[in-house]
Design goal:
Order of helices and strands of chain A: HHEEHHHHHHHHHHH
Number of strands of chain A: 2
Distance between the termini of chain A: 51 Å
Helix content of chain B: over 70%
Strand content of chain A: under 5%
Oligomer: heterodimer
Number of strands of chain B: 0
Helix content of chain A: 55-70%
Radius of gyration of chain A: 34 Å
Number of domains of chain A: 3
Distance between the termini of chain B: 69 Å
Radius of gyration of chain B: 20 Å
Chain lengths: 321, 123
């Protein structure tokens, strides 16, 4: 157990002497000889300039194409090998492409039983009129889940790197100075945004909700909604946007959407793999409320994408929501 | 009726050709001019008049149906969004470029605007 030692007793110990020697105040081996503290090494402007000039001179002399024969030879071989390599690559690629089967030929390697099943039984099994959505959100839903998680991880990385937490006076001043030239509160932009933002967000919702009927889906619709949010921010500023979208909102939306996606699709895959009935109604193809899990999954993906786009913009512009 | 169809085709084709000409002028102007405000003027012309003319030609081809309505919506979107975009870009250029008088004349009320912006930045 350690206990406190008085100052005089401590000054006699080896540790104190060693520490004094280390910090350079006194040398314990030469009795009572004061040592000078070392100064920080500084280089003069002239020496730096001289060193740079010298380096440039050496560089010029080494790479002097007129006199250095070795360098010239190397340069010539380098260019020739580069050209030969490019042509070789071109020939190999062209040869490979010319040996590929033509588009649409039945012997093509991709025309196996997988796309056949997608095309013939896709509508019946997934209930989605848009077969692409049926593929990415039903047959290959875990792939899409991974993509959503990649977006989430990218946002987390950006948050780690760019999130701005210190709010002292100097930082605030720097922040204000950084955006001194940005046109704020522009009336024309605000009027335009009042008209356009609701339309853009409505269109995004339309694209998401019709993902299984017409072209579109979670990714494109989410991108449109994110663009609407970014327009809103650039017109009205972060003070207005903070009223409905903060860091907390982002966390809740992403967590709920990704967890729901994971649980719902795990359930569907579990029942499908064990030949159990999943009790998820497929509905009539073509209706909005149809095709089982595809619509909720589309909404989840759309929410994650919209939040990701907005968060990226907010992080890169301000470093905060 | 055959003649009416032909007239409709002719009018639509003329509008699309006008739009294409304006796009060509736009591309030429963007590469021809040096200063950003001049180039932006050309780009904005293509986004409003060029898009308007060529989509008007398409509308005449389409006739009165839902597709025409969608094209009208696209034109409206462009006509609302593109001028505002050009306005914001030019405002940023005017507020950030220190050598603005080298390229164009400067009106007096711009100094007032700049002062307002500085005051905004302070608070």
């Amino acid at each position: 157990m350690s206990k406190l030692v008085p100052q005089e007793k401590y000054e006699k110990t080896k540790a104190f002497h060693f520490w004094r020697w280390l910090s350079g105040t006194k040398d314990p081996y030469l009795d009572h000889v004061e040592m000078k503290e070392q100064k920080e090494w500084k280089e003069e402007e002239q020496t730096i300039q001289d060193r740079m000039n010298e380096r440039q001179m050496i560089h010029d002399a080494v790479y002097d194409m007129g006199r250095n024969k070795k360098q010239r030879l190397f340069h010539g071989i380098y260019v020739a090998v580069a050209i030969i390599f490019c042509f070789l690559l071109l020939v190999i690629l062209l040869y490979t492409v010319s040996n590929l089967p033509p588009t649409g030929s039945p012997e093509k390697a991709v025309n196996n039983e997988v796309p056949e099943r997608y095309i013939e039984k896709g509508l019946q099994e997934t209930g989605a009129v848009n077969i692409v959505t049926g593929m990415i959100l039903d047959y290959r839903a875990f792939d899409t889940f991974g993509e959503s998680n990649v977006l989430f991880i990218a946002t987390v990385t950006v948050l780690i790197l760019l999130h701005y937490t210190k709010k002292d006076a100097a930082a605030k001043k720097e922040e204000a100075n950084d955006r001194a030239f940005e046109p704020k509160n522009d009336t024309i932009l605000q009027v335009c945004a009042t008209i356009l933002v609701p339309i853009i967000i409505l269109f995004g919702i339309y694209v998401i909700l019709n993902g299984h009927i017409s072209p579109g889906g979670g990714f494109s619709g989410g991108a449109i909604i994110g663009a609407g949010l970014i327009l809103h921010v650039s017109a009205f500023g972060f003070v207005k946007t903070e009223k409905f979208f903060t860091e907390k909102t982002y966390k809740i939306i992403c967590f709920v959407a990704l967890t729901f996606y994971c649980l719902a699709k795990s359930y569907s895959f579990f029942t499908g793999a064990n030949h159990l009935e999943s009790h998820i109604p497929l509905g009539t193809p073509g209706a909005i409320l149809s095709s089982g899990l595809i619509l909720p999954l589309n909404i989840c993906v759309g929410l994650v994408v919209a939040c990701t786009m907005y968060t990226f913009y907010a992080m890169f512009r301000k470093g905060d929501f | 009726m055959e003649i009416l169809e032909w007239v409709r085709f002719m009018i639509g084709a003329i509008f699309i050709l006008i739009g294409l000409c304006i796009f060509i002028i736009e591309v030429f102007g963007i590469f021809r001019f040096d200063y950003v405000l001049n180039r932006m003027h050309m780009a904005a012309m293509g986004d409003t008049l060029g898009i308007g003319c060529s989509l008007l030609g398409l509308m005449i081809f389409c006739g009165l149906n839902f597709e025409t309505f969608k094209i009208i919506m696209i034109v409206m979107f462009f006509w609302i969004a593109s001028p505002v975009c050009s306005h914001m870009l030019s405002k940023l250029e005017v507020t950030t470029n220190e050598n603005l008088t080298e390229h164009c004349e400067r009106r007096d009320d711009l100094a007032e605007l700049e002062r307002e912006l500085e005051e905004e930045a302070k608070c």
